[in-house]
């Protein structure tokens, strides 16, 4: 049996709980030995020796993390998981730097980690390397983070397979942000009528953005993904060494809250309309693109123009598109599909859990 403990039942963590609960109730999946035994948010926590019932998971706010639950304490949470008889995986569904910094301690206790949180893999290179060292042995604890790039799309697993089989990466180029994909697909297209601020509001309401959409528009979310890809490809990239184009209007960079940012963004609709008009006048559209260049081992993140017949120009919805150009794939290997949203991100985490379960959980009780 693989014990699963979720940190952060927010948008993505909540969708993962729903998927796991539905799975537990479905006779079709009776054979998968996964048990949800822990849940914690910033206020309350619960760890149980016996798996939570699907009905409790369906109403976790009152039945698991209700007022009687103990106050949240991540150190105690991890200690209790580490003492359980079966292997346990911590699923970090926060976007917290402080939580990411705890991964080495958890790995040292033998806990596995699955996460969509990009911080541990794109902050300090030394943290990334420490995590790699601690999860590097075939029998030891493992770290899976497919959902950190492209949500549920098989981006990191594809890159890792290319690298591990000895292919040489020439270039990885793509649209890595569901938010920025949605924005520019809808705002920058011939005949489009929606204003820039309206598109941002829809992306936020659809669950594509980070809690503060400025973390998407300032390029940091894409930069983190480019850094992660670069590191998985074997280069020491960091967000501090990338050229990043920040498209948050200067006057809004320092405003106190995401709400204030959203309410003032319409003041800048004319600015974005002008940029878009200039691109359309040359037969091009605007797209926000990240790139890892294999030859220079450098990366970039920028708003750029693509002609209408380019594959990046015809993307739809919040789709991501990632083109791997390698020695074996001079015509790029392309991964494309929904790259943000709670359900597809939870799917990416769930499929990582199944991989951990197959490696470490099956056959144990
Ligand atoms: N949305 C998407 O499409 C995608 C998101 N991701 C990543 O998924 C992660 C989750 O995003 P999302 O669900 O939107 O975030 P939310 O803000 O909706 O949820 C965050 C959760 O984390 C909890 N939390 C925060 N800090 C702590 C802490 N120190 N200890 C315990 N719990 C904590 C919050 O608890 P409380 O409610 O008590 O504050 C909340 O439950 C992020 O890292 C994001 O980048 C990755 C790919 C795609
Ligand atoms: N805000 C991100 C969420 C996934 O990483 C995005 O828009 O892609």
- CATH class designation of the largest domain: Alpha Beta
Question: How many strand segments?
Answer: 12
Rg from C-alpha positions? 21 Å
Bound ligands: NADPH dihydro-nicotinamide-adenine-dinucleotide phosphate, the ligand N[C@@H](CC=O)C(=O)O
Give the biggest sheet: 6 strands, mixed
Cα separation of the termini: 5 Å
Chain-averaged pLDDT = 95
Name the CATH homologous superfamily of the largest domain: Dihydrodipicolinate Reductase, domain 2
CATH overall fold name of the largest domain: Dihydrodipicolinate Reductase, domain 2
SSE pattern = EHEEHHHEHHEHHEHEHHHHEHHEEEEH
Short note summarizing the structure:
The protein is an alpha/beta fold. Helices cover 39% and strands 19% of the residues. A hairpin with a 4-residue loop joins strand 9 (284-293) and strand 10 (298-307).
Description:
The protein is of the alpha/beta class and 365 residues long. The protein has two domains: 2-151 and 343-361, NAD(P)-binding Rossmann-like Domain (Rossmann fold, 3-Layer(aba) Sandwich), CATH 3.40.50.720; 158-339, Dihydrodipicolinate Reductase, domain 2, CATH 3.30.360.10. 39% of the residues lie in helices and 19% in strands. The protein is built from 16 helices and twelve strands. The chain has helices at residues 11-25, 54-58, 60-63, 74-82, 97-100, 103-108, 119-122, 125-134, 156-164, 178-187, 196-205, 214-217, 220-232, 258-264, 269-281, 342-361, and strands at 2-7, 34-40, 45-47, 88-92, 112-114, 143-144, 169-175, 243-244, 284-293, 298-307, 319-326, 333-338. The strands form two sheets. A six-stranded mixed sheet has the order 3-2-1-4-5-6, sandwiched between helices. The chain has a six-stranded mixed sheet with strand order 8-10-9-7-11-12. A hairpin with a 4-residue loop joins β9 and β10. α1 (11-25) crosses α16 and α10 packs antiparallel against α11 (196-205). The longest helix has 20 residues, at 342-361. 44% of the residues are buried. The mean pLDDT is 95. Bound molecules: NADPH dihydro-nicotinamide-adenine-dinucleotide phosphate and the ligand N[C@@H](CC=O)C(=O)O. Residues 154-354 form the Homoserine dehydrogenase catalytic domain. It catalyses: L-homoserine + NADP(+) = L-aspartate 4-semialdehyde + NADPH + H(+). One of its GO terms (biological process) is homoserine biosynthetic process. Pathway: Amino-acid biosynthesis; L-threonine biosynthesis; L-threonine from L-aspartate: step 3/5; Amino-acid biosynthesis; L-methionine biosynthesis via de novo pathway; L-homoserine from L-aspartate: step 3/3.
């Amino acid at each position: 049996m693989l014990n699963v403990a979720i940190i952060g039942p927010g948008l993505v963590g909540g969708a993962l709980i729903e998927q796991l609960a539905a799975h537990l109730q479905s006779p079709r999946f009776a054979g998968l030995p996964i048990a949800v035994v822990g849940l914690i948010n910033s206020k309350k926590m619960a760890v149980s020796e016996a798996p939570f019932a699907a009905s409790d998971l369906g109403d976790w706010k009152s039945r698991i993390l209700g007022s009687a639950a103990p106050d949240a304490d991540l150190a105690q949470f991890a200690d209790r998981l580490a003492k359980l008889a079966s292997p346990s995986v911590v699923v970090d569904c926060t976007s917290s730097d402080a939580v990411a910094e705890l991964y080495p301690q958890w790995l040292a206790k033998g806990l596995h980690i699955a996460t969509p949180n990009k911080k541990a893999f794109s902050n300090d290179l030394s943290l990334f390397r420490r995590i790699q060292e601690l999860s590097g042995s075939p029998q030891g604890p493992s770290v899976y983070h497919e959902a950190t790039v492209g949500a549920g799309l098989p981006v990191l697993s594809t890159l890792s397979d290319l690298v591990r089989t000895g292919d040489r990466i020439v270039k990885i180029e793509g649209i890595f942000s569901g938010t920025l994909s949605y924005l520019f697909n809808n705002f920058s297209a011939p005949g489009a009528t929606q204003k820039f601020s309206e598109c941002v509001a829809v992306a936020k309401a659809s669950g594509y953005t980070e809690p503060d959409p400025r973390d998407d528009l300032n390029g940091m979310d894409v930069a983190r993904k480019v850094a992660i890809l670069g590191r998985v490809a074997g280069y020491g990239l960091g967000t501090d060494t990338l050229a990043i184009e920040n498209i948050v209007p200067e006057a809004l960079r320092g405003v106190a809250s995401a709400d204030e940012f959203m309410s003032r963004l319409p003041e800048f609709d004319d600015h974005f309309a002008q940029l878009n008009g200039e691109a359309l006048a040359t037969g091009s559209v605007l797209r926000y693109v990240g790139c890892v260049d294999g030859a220079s081992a450098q990366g970039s993140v920028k708003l750029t123009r693509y002609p209408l017949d380019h594959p990046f120009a015809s993307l739809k919805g919040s789709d991501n598109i990632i083109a791997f150009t390698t020695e074996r794939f001079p015509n790029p290997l392309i991964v494309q599909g929904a790259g943000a949203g709670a359900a597809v991100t939870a799917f990416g985490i769930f499929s990582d859990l199944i991989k951990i379960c197959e490696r470490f959980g099956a056959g144990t009780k």
